[in-house]
Design goal:
Blueprint (H helix, E strand, L loop, with lengths): L1 E4 L2 H11 L1 H5 L3 E6 L14 H13 L3 E6 L5 H17 L2 E4 L5 E6 L2 E6 L7 E5 L3 E2 L41 H15 L4 E4 L2 E4 L3 E4 L3 E4 L2 H12 L7 H7 L3
Parallel strand pairs: 2-3, 2-7, 3-4, 7-9, 8-10
Antiparallel strand pairs: 1-12, 5-6, 9-12, 10-11
């Protein structure tokens, strides 16, 4: 299920309809963003203005939130440099970089993964990626968001093997299978119930654009497929989505 909006009032109404409002009352909320680095042109990150809207809603409804991402120890600095510093201070928001987190080793779906233990501390978990298809990269949205949810140190190869631009090169050996397995593993260990998509996006065929609607949903695969069909159907359809469709 997913709902669409084109203004804040309707978005808040959709938060009510999908059940987010009730879930966050007096609860701790974990928000997994896509912001390993600060935004640069044609490299969209989680939209900070929309993130502020989500944070405001959480606190207005009695919740508290923690922001997480794998940023090699620089997550707080990246958020401040992205314009979120005042919000972090005003709401006293906790920031946890998964690259510094303690993990549980989990062998499931044919692979060994390392999932941050603190994920389980949060009764409400929200995935909030940036939707994009960049040159020589895969279409990326909710499913691929979790590539940045595991610590880099656990996914390195020996020094003789180097994959350019891959901060977790072990995941790139069987890339599509690892995307699927990591998503399923996190879904078993600490499932994310909600996914928020909106704001700045990028399509390799025509550059940056703002998604005209904001989506809140409870099915990552459904949302990934919908946004692909509407905004990225001129790009290659990723094998990892095909694989997931046969499983879920």
């Amino acid at each position: 299920m997913f709902l669409r909006s084109n203004n804040k009032e309707l978005l808040y109404s959709n938060f009510d309809k999908i059940g987010l409002s009730k879930d966050i009352e007096n609860n701790d909320v974990l928000i997994k963003i896509n912001s390993a680095r600060v935004y640069t042109k044609n490299h969209p990150r989680t939209d900070m203005n929309l993130l502020k809207t989500l944070i405001s809603f959480i606190y207005q409804n009695g919740g508290k939130c923690t922001i997480t991402e794998g940023s090699d120890g620089y997550l707080t600095e990246n958020l401040i440099n992205s314009g979120l510093g005042d919000f972090l201070n005003y709401y006293n928001i906790k920031v946890v970089d998964v690259d510094l987190a303690d993990c549980d080793e989990v062998f499931t779906h044919g692979e060994r993964h390392y999932i941050p233990k603190f994920f389980k501390e949060y009764p409400v978990r929200i995935g909030f990626p940036a939707t994009s298809k960049r040159e020589e990269m895969l279409y990326s949205n909710n499913i691929k968001l979790f590539f940045g949810a595991v610590p880099r140190s656990k996914y390195q190869l020996d020094n003789q093997i180097v994959l350019k631009g891959a901060s977790r090169p072990k995941l790139h050996i069987n890339l599509h299978s690892s995307i699927v397995n990591l998503f399923l593993t996190i879904n078993d260990y600490s499932p994310f119930k909600y996914y928020l998509n909106g704001g700045l996006s990028f399509n390799e065929k025509h550059g940056e654009f703002i998604l005209p609607e904001t989506y809140i949903g409870d099915n990552a695969l459904e949302l990934d497929n919908h946004l692909y069909q509407i905004y990225f159907n001129n790009c290659e359809y990723p094998e990892y989505l095909r694989k997931l469709e046969t499983i879920i």
